[in-house]
Amino acid sequence: SYTKSKGPDNSIVWTPIAVAVFLVAVATLCKEQGITVVGICCVYEVFIAQGYTFPVLWDTTLQILMGKGSIPYSMLQTLLKLIVLMFSTLLLVVVRVQVIQSQLPVFTRFDNPAAVSTTPARQLTFNYLLPVNAWLLLNPSELCCDWTMGTIPLIESILDIRNLATLLFYFLLGYLIVFSVRYSGDSSKTVLMALCLIILPFIPASNLFFPVGFVVAERVLYVPSMGFCMLVAHGWKKLSSNGRLRTLSWIFLALVVFTHAIKTFNRNWDWESEYTLFTSALKVNKNNAKLWNNVGHALENEKNYERALRFFKKATEVQPDDIGAHMNVGRTYKNLNRSKEAEESYLIAKALMPQVIPGKKYAARVAPNHLNVYINLANLIRANESRLEEADQLYRQAISMRPDFKQAYISRGELLLKMNKPLEAREAYIKALELDRMNADLWYNLAIVYIELKDPSEALRNFNQALELNPRHKLALFNSALLMQESGSARLRPEAKRRLLTYVEEEPHDANGYFNLGMLAMDEKKDTEAEVWMKKAIQLHHCFRSALFNLALLYSQTSRELEALPVLDELLRFYPDHSKGLILKGDILMNQKKDIKGAKKCFEKIVEMDPNNVQGKHNLCVVYFEERDLIKAEKCLVETLALAPHEEYIQRHLSIVRGKIMALNTAGQSVPPKEGALTLPEQKKIQKKKKKKKKKKKKKKKKK
């Protein structure tokens, strides 16, 4: 676009310039290197479009300074273009600084060891990295996905042999720059543009203006490789134009293309997965702890914790002071349920953390992810109920080091709930929300706190806030619907149903969603719909305790007691001590099937499990009454009334039993102890018959 900014009459065409500036802005938003295109445009304008050379510019400048001439009009046009381009660049830089809030990213000494080294190691190493990058362009054989940490040892002495590579690089670069700006031929212009594409996009990654988070990064060589290819192509063109070297140049070109094609093909297999990528990097460099960690992460993602642990341990051997490596070891031990070893690893990582320096911001000197060592250690030890206070101290320590550490507030809120401190938990979550009000999980957690505080209306408000941010937040959908259902408000039931239906769309294999839909339908007297939902819940979870009981209860309430019995049998097969199930089964057996013995077994089991179960004991009393064992029924009801002295129905039944007993006594009959017992006259007749038989036996003996 920018190449069209010069009109046929050497006038300025502003549209291509505006388009170029817009594209530079878009490129900068994608990657910081995009802003360097402005520098390339400036070089193109001066040396290519206007055709100036350095000697011409130098002579013109001297004449103007000495007052021997004025600025040519064409040069004024060039200056105007350059001013527009530079102003646009400055504006983009200001915007970029505002985006990062005037703070550079936090890097550790492991990311770029040279950046924290002393003089002269810092300068010597940074300068040596330039020929290293040039060598990667010239011979991209030993490629590595990560060049941080100990990949390239520091140059700590001027006598280091690697300094010769730095001197050779600067000599060749200086020669090419002088050649390109001194002469005006096509060859020099080609070399100049190639150098611009190599040098300018590389400047942000060169550590010249600010430290970066890597030693070498192959990705920053993508644009410079375009300039390098231009140099190679230009050099090959020069060679091939020589008659004696033409054949040889073609052979070398074919060889380069063939070898690079083979390398590209083989390299594709390295990128098959994270594991293959990082293991291929270890073939190039075994002194980078980050690579060992990354192989461990790849294995960890595959749940291969034993192998992952070996790589994480190797990382700690390669870089003993790497906090992240020790954290990885601790996390893997935790996944292997080896809590003691996990705690030891976390404590090592914690001991390696930088010490707090009075008057200096701690957050500026430590990588944010390293603070997770406090969170991980606290999460580990809080599994022990006796160490909850110790875990809380770790969370508070992390917060004191970085007051905007959101995860520390979240984890501390969870712990405080576990410690039955909902008010403090609420404060922790409110602080976290001040840092991130768009986090649906935080609003959900705060709602749970309000449930603990017995404030359902505020809990529902926070659930609703979570759902505004994330309409398909599964836990908020389910728990808010449950809260609406428990409120008993008929007005809230349609919304509760809508949320549960959305929940089962998200979690189609969770039986709880279908069960609660069934309970809602029962509340609305939609028995057929309730039956469908309950059966769906049981289908997904065949031993779903609540679903089995409520389906049986539904059958009982809709006069389908006999259909309820097999459901109750299934319930009691899985949960033989289910009191309500036993009561319901006993009622059905006694009232519908007239199976007094079966009902009695159910009620006796309830009383055996819980002698203070009023309903079970009362029903057993009714069984005694049905068996006509009035004395036992009376005694049973007296005991039951002692458990629930204000229950009117027990008093009424006791009065009925006592009335029966009194009526029998008034009639001169003994109280029958159980069903089928003989009356008093019948008992006397039997006794007379027994006496007669005894007399007959005595007479026979006398005759003998």
UniProtKB/TrEMBL annotation:
EC class of the enzyme, as a word: transferase
Transmembrane stretches, start-end: 12-29, 35-58, 79-99, 161-179, 191-214, 220-236
A biological process from GO: regulation of macromolecule metabolic process
Gene3D superfamilies registered for this protein in UniProt: Tetratricopeptide repeat domain
The protein's annotated pathway: Protein modification; protein glycosylation
Biased composition (Basic residues): 686-704
Keyword Transferase belongs to the record: yes
Membrane topology summary: Multi-pass membrane protein
Main location: endoplasmic reticulum
EC number annotated for this UniProt entry: 2.4.1.109
GO CC term, one of those recorded: membrane
Region (Disordered): 668-704
Residue spans of the TPR repeats: 289-322, 406-439, 440-473
Cellular compartment(s): Endoplasmic reticulum; Membrane
Function field: Transfers mannosyl residues to the hydroxyl group of serine or threonine residues. The 4 members of the TMTC family are O-mannosyl-transferases dedicated primarily to the cadherin superfamily, each member seems to have a distinct role in decorating the cadherin domains with O-linked mannose glycans at specific regions. Also acts as O-mannosyl-transferase on other proteins such as PDIA3. Involved in the positive regulation of proteasomal protein degradation in the endoplasmic reticulum (ER), and the control of ER stress response.
Protein family (similarity comment): Belongs to the TMTC family.
Protein name, per record: Protein O-mannosyl-transferase TMTC3
